[in-house]
Amino acid sequence: MAAAQTTRAKSAAANTASWRDVAPAAVVLITGPEDYLGIRAMDRVRAQVRAAAPEVELSRLNASSYEPGSLAMAVTPSLFGEAKLIEIEGLEAMNDAFLADALGYLGHTDADVVLVLRHAGGVRGKKLLDAVKAGGWPVVDCQPLKKDAEKTAFVMSEFKAGGRRIEPEAVQALVNAVGASLSELAAACSQLIADATTAVDAATVERYYGGRVEATAFKVADAAMAGNGPLALSTLRHALATGVDPVPLVAALAAKLRTLAKVAGAQGSSAQIAKQLGMQPWLVEQAQRDVRKWTPEGLIRSIQVTAEADAQVKGLSRDPVYAVEHAVTVIATSVRRN
């Protein structure tokens, strides 16, 4: 029993593919809720199929509105014998007819057909997903990129693939500015890659995306963390006057302080700490430089006042603006003067 489970686990691990390097196969399963990565994975498979067989016949079906027998018709060899690419979306809402036909097809796949299945998540169709995994076909898991480390890695990979360099500070600035949406982050990367003639730096990112809400929030946080109270407060008041909500402003402060606290309490080289915390080494090195400006008491006080402000801007206070201003003032005055 244990041996069988180990074999199944190894098989599942062996057929896992990245959305960046997935290759065509008789069956390709693309799962997970991150639509942008799912689209990129499907685009990659389609491009490779067309490169190998320019005359490929493309068919698209939806598993939720599937009519019995449609898959069999789609895979039937054409009169001229072209290769076939069949893309089926909506597997998370598949009907029983599709489930039955798809399970039947997995037992008798066609060598001239590439079948791409898109399942956005959930338990519907688990039997089919398990059958694909057990068959050893490629499975791409498209999960949202939630951590800053994942987003910075995404940006660096985009620039590497585009043949352009981007400086570490510019990576973080870009994530801060447009990182809330992966599709927007990817679009920003594409624009900078297309427009840049040299390495992209933080000033370039600021020129393109400095007006975004997230960027404004981090400008406030950067000024406060640098101990520049007047600049932090003036930037904060401008942000509030132009419609920026207090919640992302406090979130930016909290993110900066969390990074500082994590690095302050870690032991080892920057590379070791980066591995332990799941952060980029350059971000750890920056935090190590910044933490020298802080006493433990000042850091604790700043974290406490930011936590209080977070609760106040989310409904516990009638004056959320004062809560943010107070937090910014405490943080700025807690930085140790040289």
Task: Please provide a written account of the structure.
Helix content is 60%, strand content 9%. Strands 1-6-2-5-4-3 form a six-stranded parallel beta sheet, sandwiched between helices. It has helices at residues 2-14, 35-52, 70-75, 96-106, 126-134, 148-161, 168-178, 182-195, 202-209, 213-225, 229-241, 246-264, 270-277, 281-291, 296-316, 320-334, and strands at residues 16-17, 27-31, 57-62, 84-89, 113-119, 139-141. Strand 4, helix 4 and strand 5 form a beta-alpha-beta unit. With 338 residues, the chain is an alpha/beta fold.
Strand content: 5-15%
C-alpha Rg (nearest Å): 25 Å
Q: In terms of quaternary structure, what is this?
A: single chain
Portion of residues within helices: 55-70%
Q: Work out the helix count.
A: 16
What would you say about this model in short?
This protein is of the alpha/beta class and 338 residues long. The chain contains 16 helices and six strands. The chain starts with a helix and ends with a helix.
Notable traits:
single chain; 338 residues; alpha/beta; 6-stranded parallel sheet; elongated
Task: Please describe the topology of this protein.
Elements: H1 2-14, E1 16-17, E2 27-31, H2 35-52, E3 57-62, H3 70-75, E4 84-89, H4 96-106, E5 113-119, H5 126-134, E6 139-141, H6 148-161, H7 168-178, H8 182-195, H9 202-209, H10 213-225, H11 229-241, H12 246-264, H13 270-277, H14 281-291, H15 296-316, H16 320-334
Parallel strand pairs: 1-6, 2-5, 2-6, 3-4, 4-5
